């Protein structure tokens, strides 16, 4: 019995309550993901501290909390409750969209042709450098709101459209401001090695990052002004080669940052092998990863953050998700939201992962929850519905959770509530009047 205590939230009698996992697993590999933990006719309680206090059969919870009071009770009959989605890879702070480049790509130009001609990341850098901090923040805030409404409650956010120290810090301050003022959870990534700035060689840019950028980040962290979690490099032919990548990642690790970088996207670079050797928490993209790289990542428990929107948008070959899963890699998903791949929606990302990368719906959900949380070093607090974890949840207006993936682009009418730390941060009233079928 819970006694007369007060709690923040009671979700009552969900048709399905998708725990994802229930034994404090820090990740789910293929076999674990195949049998996701799902309860039927279940309830969940979140405490005043925002953490989950109980989850179980509705009648058991009812008896246990008979005398308790709740700030809010939501009747979930006929609905499903899932963990908030975790987006493990985004570039959401920028000015200047690239819709004109979308047209060029549709007409046949490749990503690298546009980049080498001074467009792509360079175009966005030019606009981001000119934008004020407030302008960047306003656009970022709106993007985060859209992510939240699409079900993401924890999002990795990169800098990387400044390249010079001043603009990189401006971006990181914008991320910090959102972290403090918004409900959505943020994992912040320094990505000063996103491209080689115009007028510098890769070696000069690498030296600048190691000698100037990283010491400044360390100083700001010590002063409690900016909290950066991860370090990223775009390890790619014509951008940062393997040796420069190694130098930057090692220096970042020495500064206390988790390694989480772009690798083996357009060309095989042996990024996976390098990441495994350096103890990287995650590597993103991996369309061109080698067989040895896959084995090394599995052994090193280095998560593969797969980005189905990139391969779709750029018509690249798909990352070998099946092979990675079979070899025991921890597979996570990200939207890769950026001016090249303008997609906020993890439900759509999961759908693409299922159709184009041949993942099952269970594998896709594990990849967008517990495994994405692992890729950010946060699976002890996020990514599943277990007692003690943060009460980040979705309620969908359907009696089977798989509708979240099956209805491609249908999440806007399907997601009924988004909840962070037990507090409703988005309520979609349209759901009450609409049938989900
Ligand atoms: N590949 C490098 N970075 C981004 C694209 C960034 C951009 O084009 O602005 C990505 O992950 O897809
Ligand atoms: Zn990226």
- CA-based gyration radius: 21 Å
Biggest sheet record: 8 strands, mixed
Relative strand content: 15-25%
Distance between the termini: 39 Å
Which CATH-level-2 architecture of the largest domain?
Alpha-Beta Barrel
CATH topology of the largest domain: TIM Barrel
Beta-strand segment tally: 16
Give the rounded overall mean pLDDT: 96
Q: Please estimate the helix content.
A: 25-40%
Structural class: alpha/beta
State the low-pLDDT regions, or none: none
Report the bound ligands by name, code or SMILES: N-(iminomethyl)-L-glutamic acid, zinc ion
Q: Using the alpha-carbon principal axes, give the shape.
A: globular
EC number: 3.5.2.7
Keywords: Histidine metabolism, Hydrolase, Iron, Metal-binding, Zinc
GO molecular function, one term: metal ion binding
Domain Amidohydrolase-related: 81-425
Tag the structure with descriptive keywords:
globular; TIM Barrel; 16 strands; iron; binds zinc ion; 19 helices; 437 residues; zinc; binds N-(iminomethyl)-L-glutamic acid; alpha/beta; eight-stranded parallel sheet; metal ion binding; histidine metabolism; eight-stranded mixed sheet; Urease, subunit C, domain 1; 2 domains
